[in-house]
Design brief:
By secondary structure, the protein is mainly beta. The chain folds into 2 domains: about 1-100, no CATH class; about 120-740, Beta Barrel (Maltoporin, Chain A). The chain has a 22-stranded antiparallel barrel. Strands 5-12-13-8-9 form a 5-stranded mixed sheet. A 4-stranded mixed sheet has the order 2-3-1-4, covered by helices on one side. It starts with a helix and ends with a strand.
């Protein structure tokens, strides 16, 4: 529909189903000569559809059981559109998925294709764009810490399918995800208060929607310093089929080395594929596939540390979308996942440590999931569903290591840290959930309950209940208040056993309570701001391992600074503020600030988590023209916690020793990074050529991150300490040639 395209070109984001709003849908000739928003609304009403506001600059097209008079709807839309100016978002077509995402409880932060492209560093990895979300913290890893939660506490879904670990180089900081921009149409980031349909993780949710187009096809070939790729997306003209394909292979390995090690040959490849067949106007089948393959061989010094790794992941799924009636929608999927990971390494530091490591993890999961939505009236929706899974793992861990006496004494480690363990844990999981979403004029509430259960052969069964409440109040057209409270549980997956301490019995499920409140305002002059306060409290939490000196070591299991952290509970609190404003034609500025604290209660003492950042801010500017765009981002946060360490040399009376201070009692200096992105596109006789330039840490600032233990001379019994930096300047340039078929 041309009117919809005109409206989205002004910056308004509209979510709709390509089945509900097909490309052939026409507007009646007799459309009132009002503003564009009113004309769109009136045209939809004439086709028995409604345009419903779900957030600032965000609308969804829904069916209208009892279409209101077009004049009344047009007048209402005219009042709502008053004072609106152009922003930078664009249309996102959900291909019949909008019923489960429109007006989603929990107020997620959304990213469409254009917003992803605007973030420096996201040219080859969509997840890198999420670092501008308030409450997210990242280092070298693409995996984000969400409001202080552990990395494993974040759920990642693609096409409605949960993925256990869709990241490359899992044992080496997970420096990139499998999702390049050609595979993702839209992503929603939940930092708290997410709906009951999202279970199994307690920290946050990254919900990614596969890329699709309304009609025609697109083929692309691209290359950059990191990888080469081929992609295709399209929709058949004669057959009711749409497809998505992305194939990527690593390029020059030197582009990855600044993130991973001094010397080495990291290689990766991935494939993302999806075919959707619309069997009828009310039913569709989807077949999906994600494959990751990594090989790593890294050394930090030929005689000090070396690590090798190999991992391969396969995720496949079959999904059935069914709309048996205008008021009923369902998604049912069957997914198969398999992951193989092997890591080996050795360390040889005279007067410090010597040892070797072999670790292998094999994990498989079968899952069946079904979601249903029933809308008996325009103001009420029932969501319910369930999921069943079977997990199997084969785990092997062997560490042979000895420490020098001063090291063992300073870090509280035994002289001989050798351990060997094997396990074949299995589990059967069950999840059931239901929620009711109700509208009362300007007030909307969503009340839900989730049940999760696990059966472990030999260890009995366990279960958890998770009640959740989300509410929203639209005080005026431009003001919105919202809040959330809920319980979130996380059972330990069988591949997450801590084999370096020979864990054989599963932990009790972690439990977190999220409490948040926020307010948003969309004013005139394209000004939008959002403020949110939150408190997340973990009343039960599994132990985890942490490296107090070097969190980005190649082989953390062999480092002498590795400690086991067993909190009795944990808490994250904070306030977040984000502002965006259009300051000229094609020019937008944004600012994000968060004040937060996350700590573990360890033996009655609050200990900041190693990724706690008290203050954090991002300031950015985006300039876009018809075919050219530029963006710059200045990031700053207070330094992450560190553990003081002093090496005391030997005297005739006292042997040398290490003085290790209280864990995380000091801090590194402030972290500052300036990132830049430039892009342009050139029309060709056949297709279009896009060129881009990305610079991360463009100023090459040395941000201290870690302490490396290094022996000094043969006379010394205590190692020297050397501070290392997070990452040097990383430059990436690339191109993509796209050919598009008839739209």
């Amino acid at each position: 529909m041309d009117l919809l395209r005109e409206l989205t070109a002004t910056g308004v984001e509209i979510l709709y189903s390509s089945q509900l709003v097909p490309a052939t849908l026409d507007a009646p000739d007799a459309i009132p000569r009002l503003d564009l928003m009113s004309r769109v609304t009136a045209a939809l009403v004439a086709n028995h559809l409604l345009l419903r506001r779900t957030g600032p600059q965000r609308y969804v097209v829904t069916g209208a059981p009892s279409p209101p008079p077009a004049v009344q709807v047009a007048a209402s839309a005219a009042r709502e559109s008053a004072g609106r100016e152009a922003a930078l978002d664009e249309v996102s077509v959900f291909a019949s998925r909008y019923e489960f995402t429109a007006s989603m409880p929990g107020e997620p932060i959304g990213f469409d294709g254009r917003k992803i492209e605007q973030v420096p560093g996201a040219a080859t990895d969509v997840v890198r764009a999420f670092r501008i979300v308030p409450g997210l913290a990242t280092n070298l890893s693409a995996r984000p810490y969400v409001r202080g939660a552990l990395l494993d506490d974040v759920l990642v879904e693609f096409d409605g399918i949960p993925l256990a670990d869709p990241f490359h180089f899992k044992s080496f900081q997970s420096v990139m995800s499998v999702f390049n921009p050609s595979t993702v149409n839209r992503a929603d980031v939940f930092t708290g208060g997410f709906p009951v349909k999202f279970g199994t993780r307690s920290g946050g949710v990254l919900d990614l929607v596969p890329r699709s187009i309304d009609s025609g096809y697109e083929y692309s070939v691209g290359a950059n310093l990191l990888s080469y790729d081929f992609g295709s997306v399209g929709r058949g003209q004669q057959w009711p089929i749409e497809w998505l394909l992305s194939v990527r292979r690593s390029g020059d390995h030197s582009a990855l080395l600044p993130l991973m090690g001094d010397v080495g040959e990291p290689q990766f490849s991935d494939e993302v594929g999806r075919i959707r067949w619309a069997m009828s106007s009310s039913s569709a089948l989807t077949l999906g596939l994600i494959v990751l393959d990594d090989q790593v061989r890294l050394t930090s010094n030929a005689v000090k540390k070396a690590a090798m790794g190999r991992s391969r992941d396969l995720n496949s799924w079959l999904k059935w979308d069914w709309t048996p009636a205008p008021t009923v929608h369902s998604h049912t999927s069957f997914a198969v996942a398999n992951s193989e990971r092997t890591n080996t390494g050795n360390i040889g530091l005279p007067e410090v440590a010597s040892g070797s490591l072999y670790a292998a993890r094999s994990f498989s999961n079968l899952s069946l999931r079904s979601e249903w939505a029933y809308s008996p009236s325009a103001g009420l929706t029932w969501d319910f569903g369930g999921e069943f899974g079977r997990e199997d793992a084969e785990l092997t861990f062997s560490r042979r290591e000895v420490f020098a006496a001063p090291i063992a004494l300073g870090f509280g480690r035994p002289l001989d840290a050798t351990v060997s363990s094997n396990g074949t844990p299995r589990a059967t999981t069950l999840g059931l959930f239901a929620s009711a979403k109700r509208h009362w004029g300007a007030l909307e509430a969503d009340v839900g309950l989730r049940f999760d259960g696990q059966a472990y052969p030999g260890f009995g069964s366990r279960s958890q209940l998770s009640p959740r409440l989300n509410w929203r109040y639209d005080a005026e057209d431009n003001w919105r208040a919202y809040g959330s409270w809920g319980q979130f549980t996380q059972a330990q997956r069988v591949d997450e056993y801590r084999l370096e301490e020979s864990q054989s019995m599963p932990d009790s499920a972690s439990r977190a309570a999220h409490l948040l409140a926020g307010v948003t305002h969309e004013g005139t002059h394209a000004l939008y701001w959002r403020c949110e306060v939150y408190r997340n409290h973990w009343s039960a939490i599994s132990p985890y391992f942490d490296n107090v000196l070097d969190p980005v070591s190649l082989i953390p299991e062999l480092e002498p600074d590795r400690v086991r952290v067993a909190p009795s509970d944990a808490e994250a609190t904070g306030v977040e503020l984000s502002v965006q404003r259009s300051i000229g034609p094609g020019l937008t500025a944004l600012g994000i600030y968060s004040l937060s604290r996350v700590s573990d209660d360890v033996s009655g003492r609050d200990v900041p988590r190693s990724w706690d950042q008290r203050h954090a801010s991002n300031i950015g500017i985006v300039w876009t023209q018809q075919r050219t765009a530029a963006s710059a981002l200045l990031g700053w946060h207070t330094g992450w916690p560190r553990t003081p360490l002093t090496a005391v040399s030997a005297t005739p009376a006292i042997p040398a020793y290490l003085m290790v201070g209280t864990r995380n009692s000091a801090r590194w200096g402030d972290y500052v990074s300036f990132d830049l992105r430039l892009s342009t596109s050139v029309p060709l006789r056949h297709g279009e050529l896009s060129l881009w330039f990305d610079a991360t840490n463009a100023a090459n600032r040395a941000n201290d991150c870690c302490v490396d233990l290094s022996p000094i001379n043969s006379q010394a019994s205590v190692p020297a300490t050397l501070n290392r930096i997070w990452s040097p300047r990383i430059i990436n340039v690339g191109f993509a040639w796209r050919v598009r078929g008839p739209q």
